[in-house]
Amino acid sequence: MGEALVELIGVEHSYRTKGGAVPALGPLDLRVEPGEFVVVVGPSGSGKSTFLRVVSGFEHPSGGAVRLLGRTPVPGRDVGVVFQQPRLFPWQTVGGNIGTALRWAGVARADRPQRTVELLDQVGLGSLGPRRTWEISGGQQQRVAIARALAAQPRLLLMDEPFAALDAMTRERLQEDVRSLTDDATRGVVFVTHSVDEAVFLASRIVVLTDRPGRIALDLPVPLPRTGVSADELRGSAEYAALRGEVATAVRSVAA
Ligand SMILES: Nc1ncnc2c1ncn2[C@@H]1O[C@H](COP(=O)(O)OP(=O)(O)O)[C@@H](O)[C@H]1O
Ligand SMILES: [Mg+2]
């Protein structure tokens, strides 16, 4: 067995509040391998965002250990993060936002223009570099946020309900693009959502969290093909429907 991208060992987290400790997550164990697209599904308040913050190193867990490529995660390094809101810098152009991310990633100034073009191409925004962030649609803004997260070429991409604020058609298009991020088998994605449909479409593996504090209720491989099949075929297949039913039942039972 090679080195895990992420390893959580007995991880739990409580928030300290005036009213006492609020248990939000765990204890849980989880290992994510390179090439996996893990979607964590759970009801609202089950600890999904807490889970991602702990994995990214932004939140130090109250208990247990997190290993990212065998080390303690350094916030802002090693992983790219995409949130529900794009959080772009409004005083910079689309290209400027990517350029800043490249600078933070340590890319030499002379290489940044070319890399900016490549990243915008990768997310289907080839010509939008000079535009202002408020001149583009919500879906395009979220694509910029994805390009920015990819700037440092992270081995691991963390996504926190990144499409929840988008309309259904835009959401499906972005899902189709994001699904192929793990075609490069050295990379991994951990994506959290409360949408069962989104989970079944995207995941190579689905982890269902219990209600707060989130523990692992179900850990399920997704045997759907990842290449050579259209999104419509996939969403219309009997295998997709069966899996959707199984995961929906699990989510309903933990939320009850
Ligand atoms: N900063 C905080 N202080 C106190 N409680 C918090 C804080 N952040 C989250 N929580 C609580 O922890 C639980 C899990 O939150 P969160 O990880 O945001 O869930 P999710 O992303 O699944 O909706 C919730 O019950 C929430 O109220
Ligand atoms: Mg959340």
Automatic annotation (TrEMBL):
Domain ABC transporter: 9-236
Matches recorded under InterPro entries: AAA+_ATPase (IPR003593), ABC_transporter-like_ATP-bd (IPR003439), ABC_transporter-like_CS (IPR017871), ABC_transporter_ATP-bind (IPR050166), P-loop_NTPase (IPR027417)
Keyword Nucleotide-binding: yes
Pfam short name (any one): ABC_tran
Alphabetical UniProt keywords: ATP-binding, Nucleotide-binding, Transport
Domain of life from the UniProt record: Bacteria
GO MF annotation terms: ATP binding; ATP hydrolysis activity
Name used for this protein in its record: Taurine transport system ATP-binding protein
